[in-house]
Amino acid sequence: MTRPRAIPTVQIDNERTRVTEWRFAPGAETGHHRHGRDCVVVPMTTGTLLRETPQGTLRSPLTAGVSYTRLTGVEHNVINANDFEFVFVEIELK
Question: Distance between CA 74 and CA 37 in Å, rounded?
């Protein structure tokens, strides 16, 4: 199945951080990727994302404004499981 792609917009990219806003239409995905840096994610929307990982598919209920972290090396594909747009901001630590 082909899904639409999430849309990343880099807001800041300097020697210490990269800040990217990710916008997901319903059903959109990031595509499989491996995190090259530690990061903090700040959901701007409340809803559920699916994470396809080597260990299987996981449901991640998220709340707007409640941050979480991802460590270097995490591999997954992130999919918007909602019937509305989902947005988060990712802050990568260089």
Answer: 9
CA distances to 4, 15, 90, 94 from 39, rounded to whole Å, are: 24, 15, 7, 9
pLDDT tens per residue across span 33-66: 999 999 999 999 999 999 999 999 999 999 999 9
DSSP character string of 65-90: T--EEE-TT-EEEEEE-SSS-EEEEE
User: 7-93: which CATH number, 2.60.120.10, 3.40.50.12780, 3.40.50.1240, 3.40.50.2300?
Assistant: 2.60.120.10
